[in-house]
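Data deposition worksheet. Section B asks for the primary sequence of the deposited chain exactly as it was used as input, without tags or linkers unless they were present during the calculation. Section C holds the resulting structure in token form. Section D is free text for depositor observations; keep each observation to a single sentence. Incomplete worksheets are returned to the depositor.
Section A, Depositor: J.P.
Section B:
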Amino acid sequence: MLNREWEEFFNIEEVYDTSDVGIDSFTDTKKDAAAALASCINTNGCVDFNWMQEASGLSLAELIEELEGAVYQDPEVYDLSHGEDQGWMLRSQYLSGNIKTKLEAAKKLNRKYKGRFESNVRALKAVLPEKVDFDVIGFGIGSPWIPEQYYSLFAKEVLGLFCLPEIRYSAALGRWKISISSKGKDAVQNIYTYGTKRLSALQIMECTLNGGTVKVYDDVPRPERRSGMAKVLNKVETLEAQEKQELLQTAFQEWVRKDSLRMKRLKEIFYDTYACNVAGRYNGSFL
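Section C:
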């Protein structure tokens, strides 16, 4: 499955079947290295230079030279181990994640080791996306890059809560959850201004954080069903709740913008996170 991508990257006509470790019959060094890498990934799921040396008969220096640009050594791993064969990974793996942080580390360790990681720096710079206009992208309740504490502070200030609500994202569940004491949420803004008689503003906010559109259902008797009941959409109350959902979004955006320091900090967070999320793009990815 990986052969065509390797062929294009290394500019070779073919890569032999990599399902068999035995590649001693190869004679072209670049082709041998590419086939060894493909076989190593298929077999081990990672870049293992010791394995590739044994499989191909090529030296570590030969493999590193021929695989330049296809694999990168993590500068921080090298800084800890000083192992020539340690910390290597595929291009697509290295050029993804938090690119800004990786670039800072690569620059620092490139200076420390006198140009050893120059190719890392160039490659990371190449995939670092240009900054886009924060206002063009937009933001709101549910933007995943916004830290939890901003949502909590907004809820307390704008909804007039008596205490700071706990707003947390559970990676295990893949959902946001808002927790607060019953006394803490007894506020006019939470119950009436941004809420409805069926849904409080905090309930609407939790739904919004999880990317949902609020809906209100009535329990209606249905004798033909085993449970004897059915949930039927209440169109009037759903429309009211959705209007409050939009109002809450507008209030959040206004709350962010009215504090210049808060706006500045969120822009910084946005650009750092935006780079992290999109910088993995690379048309020649090996994965």
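Section D:
The radius of gyration is 27 Å.
Confidence is low (pLDDT under 50) at residues 16-27, 275-287.
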